[in-house]
């Protein structure tokens, strides 16, 4: 028997994490990013013919407090209406028990990827818009705690 390589382990992790959307109206696209509890993919809503973002609870969080927090996150996003906040449009449960929700797909460069190529006034305007968005959520009792990673 040969040892399992790092590449094989990464492949197995991707297969385990990748959502099975059989029976859903969404077709899976590329991975967009990961956060503390969820993984975000680009997907196609085949019923409406549009691209969306689909966030799925990571496999290790299918039960308990994380599952409850994930559902609450979708509910909060569905209620917050602000240009700087992407609202949740649909929720569901995969066949493996993991929850997911669907959001508008926001296109563009990540702020941390593009900020060095922008002027200081442009970066400060972006920072101000981010602060205004966070204030909007804070006034409504919502605090963002997740630190996502690509």
What can you tell me about this protein's structure?
This protein is of the alpha+beta class. It has a domain at 6-108: Phosphorylase Kinase, domain 1 (2-Layer Sandwich). The protein has helices at 6-17, 65-79, 111-114, 120-139, and strands spanning 26-34, 38-45, 50-57, 88-93, 99-104. A five-stranded antiparallel beta sheet has the order 1-2-3-5-4, covered by helices on one side.
Mind sketching the topology for me?
Layout: H1 6-17, E1 26-34, E2 38-45, E3 50-57, H2 65-79, E4 88-93, E5 99-104, H3 111-114, H4 120-139
Antiparallel strand pairs: 1-2, 2-3, 3-5, 4-5
Tell me the CATH topology of the domain at 6-108. Phosphorylase Kinase, domain 1
> How would you sum up the global shape?
globular
In percent terms, what proportion of residues is strand? 15-25%
* Largest sheet geometry: 5 strands, antiparallel
The level of helicity is 25-40%
Text of the CATH class of the domain at 6-108: Alpha Beta
Low-confidence regions? none
For the biggest β-sheet, the strand order reads 1-2-3-5-4
Radius of gyration: 17 Å
Specify the structural class: alpha+beta
**Can you write the helix and strand succession as a string?**
HEEEHEEHH
Q: How large is the count of helical segments?
A: 4
């Amino acid at each position: 028997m040969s040892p399992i390589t790092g590449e094989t382990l990464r492949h197995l992790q991707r297969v385990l994490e990748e959502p099975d959307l059989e029976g859903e109206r969404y077709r899976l696209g590329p991975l967009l990013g990961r956060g503390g509890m969820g993984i975000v993919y680009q997907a196609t809503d085949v019923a409406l013919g549009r691209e969306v973002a689909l966030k799925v609870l990571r496999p290790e969080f299918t039960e308990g407090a994380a599952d409850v927090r994930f559902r609450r996150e979708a509910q909060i996003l569905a209620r917050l209406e602000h240009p700087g906040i992407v609202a949740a449009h649909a929720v569901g449960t995969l066949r493996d028990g993991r929850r997911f929700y669907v959001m508008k797909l926001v296109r563009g460069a990540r702020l941390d990827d593009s900020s060095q190529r922008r002027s200081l006034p442009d970066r400060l305007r972006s920072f101000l818009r981010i602060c205004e968005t966070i204030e909007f959520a804070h006034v409504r009792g919502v605090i963002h705690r997740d630190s996502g990673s690509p």
